[in-house]
Amino acid sequence: MNPLTEAIGYAAGTLATLAFVPQVVKTWRSKSVEDLSFTTLATFTTGIALWLVYGVRARSFPIILANAITLVLNAVLVVLKVRYRRRR
Questions:
Q1: 74 pLDDT exceeds 70?
Q2: Is 59 left (phi over 0), alpha (psi -120 to 50) or beta?
Q3: Are the C-beta atoms of 24 and 77 separated by less than 8 Å?
Q4: How far apart are CA 9 and CA 73, in angstroms?
Q5: C-alpha dihedral over 81, 53, 65, 10, to 10 degrees?
Q6: 81: number of CA atoms within 13 Å, CB side?
Q7: pLDDT digits (tens, 9 = 90+) for 8-61
Q8: DSSP letters of 12-63?
Q9: HSE-up of 2 (CA within 13 Å, CB side)?
């Protein structure tokens, strides 16, 4: 793969993945999940899982790395949504 294309892939993956870190931290600290839509989380998590499968099949490490990390972050949000919603 072209080095510029590879660099763009890593940059895009890094920025897209980092975008979820503040939400995970905020949810973890506040223990508030009221503003998180379970449908959106489930749909997005499914999409990320499919992107991960695509990356594996395409043998694209930037796609694999970014989506594996994003999948973990979103899975944390789903777990927090379920856990904190039950406490109410």
A1: yes
A2: left
A3: yes
A4: 19
A5: -110
A6: 17
A7: 989 999 998 898 899 989 999 998 888 889 899 999 999 999 999 999 999 999
A8: HHHHHHHTTHHHHHHHHHH---TT--HHHHHHHHHHHHHHHHHHHHHT-HHH
A9: 4
Encoded amino acid at 23, one letter? Q
CATH number of 3-86: 1.20.1280.290
φ/ψ region of 31 (left if φ > 0, alpha if ψ in -120 to 50, else beta) reads left
Burial category of 83 from C-beta neighbours within 10 Å (exposed 0-12, middle 13-18, buried 19 and up)? exposed
Q: Provide the pLDDT for residue 11.
A: 94
